[in-house]
Structures are given as structure tokens and as C-alpha cells.
Design a protein that fits this description.
Length: 68
């Protein structure tokens, strides 16, 4: 089990959180996603290390951006 944390910019409401969570959950190996809306911090647990590009693509699909 691994855990990764990213900061996502642009989220303003629970719908934003749900969209990001849904897209990241679709990545193979992801077991849990936790989003802290006030800070934009997204914590992802997975069965193996995740490809950062896949996470960035999932966040972009939801309409947001992983902060640099």
C-alpha cells in the first residue's frame, strides 16, 4: 500500500471534490481518495506506486489542475 499527496487548484465546492475523486478512483490500483477542500490537498492510497501523469490526466479530466 502506498500513499501520495498532490495539491489541486480550482476546487471550490463538494461537486468539485466529487468530480476529482471519481476520476482518480478510476486509475488502476487506487484504493482510496481523500480531498481536503479548503487546502486542495488530495491524498491517494493505492496498491502500487502511481504514475504522476495518470493522476494529472485524471484531475484534468475533472476540469482542474495539479499545482506544480
Amino acid at each position: 500500500m502506498t500513499e501520495h499527496t498532490w495539491t489541486v487548484s480550482g476546487m471550490t465546492c463538494e461537486h468539485c471534490v466529487a468530480s476529482v475523486t471519481e476520476e482518480i478512483t478510476e486509475i488502476d490500483g487506487v484504493t482510496a481518495v481523500a480531498v481536503d477542500l479548503p487546502t486542495g490537498v488530495v491524498t491517494v492510497r493505492s496498491t502500487a506506486p502511481l504514475d504522476e501523469g495518470a493522476v494529472r490526466a485524471a484531475v484534468a479530466e475533472a476540469g482542474y489542475v495539479v499545482a506544480a
